[in-house]
Structure formats: C-alpha cells, structure tokens
Amino acid sequence: MPKPDTNAAPFSYEGLDRVIHEKARLGMLTSLMAHPKGLAFADLKRLCGLTDGNLSRHLQVLQEAGMVEVSKGYEANRPLTTCRLTKTGRRQFLDYLTVLEQLVRDAAKAAGSSDPLPTGLHTRPV
Asked: What is the CA radius of gyration of the chain?
C-alpha cells in the first residue's frame, strides 16, 4: 500500500508508530530512555504501574520490533531480568517524539496560540 503524500496530508503524522503509541509502551519506553543502563523488570513494572503479565506482553511486542532487549541473569543468587532500549529503539523513540512535538505545534497553531506548548504542558511534572 503506498504511503500518503505528507505534503498533501500534513496532519497524517505517519511517524506516530502504533507500536510506540500505545499508552503502556509509551510509558515503558520513556522509563527506559531515562535509564540508559536498563531497568530491572520489577522496577519497570513499578514505574509503569503494570502487572507482570501486561509488562511481559508489552515487552514482547517491543522486542519483536527490535526496540528493547531483555536479558536474564542472576544477582546475589536471585534471578534478575533486565530491560533496556536498543540503539534502534532509542532512535525510533526519538523520531517518534519529533513527530509528536510537531503535532503539538500544529495543534497550538490551529488553536491560535503563538506558544508551541499550550498552558498546562509547561507546568506538568515530567
């Protein structure tokens, strides 16, 4: 199927990857971006407010997309599963954020604001 001409469809936002755009995966990728050395499965689960099963399923989707790597090992004789972004995943996520920033600029412009970040986005904690 041919891709739409983005000049003819400037609001199609083709770079909003459905793999990333799902709420849980967006949170997971953001958490992993903030922790470049990776996170333990339990820490990622806590940060994203997910169950073991939900986190496992979303990790599987991200692994299949080549965005996340999961390694299993031991720490102090206890099993440890570590999750981290791949180089490809990091690049894809940054590309996604660039498109998302354009979407926010376009929405602010359409709303008649000269400020690229509408009120509320400045003060929301990250």
From this structure: 17
Of 96, 26, 114, 31, the closest CA to residue 62 belongs to 26
**Does pTM top 0.70 for this prediction?**
yes
Which class for 3: exposed (0-12), middle (13-18), buried (19 or more C-beta within 10 A)?
exposed
Q: Which domains does the chain have, with CATH numbers?
A: 18-110 (1.10.10.10)
Using one digit for the tens of pLDDT, what is the confidence trace for 36-60? 999 999 999 999 999 999 999 999 9
Q: Kindly give, in sequence order, each residue whose CB lies less than 8 Å from that of residue 83, ignoring residues fewer than 6 positions away.
A: 28, 32, 38, 39, 40, 41, 44, 59, 68, 69, 70
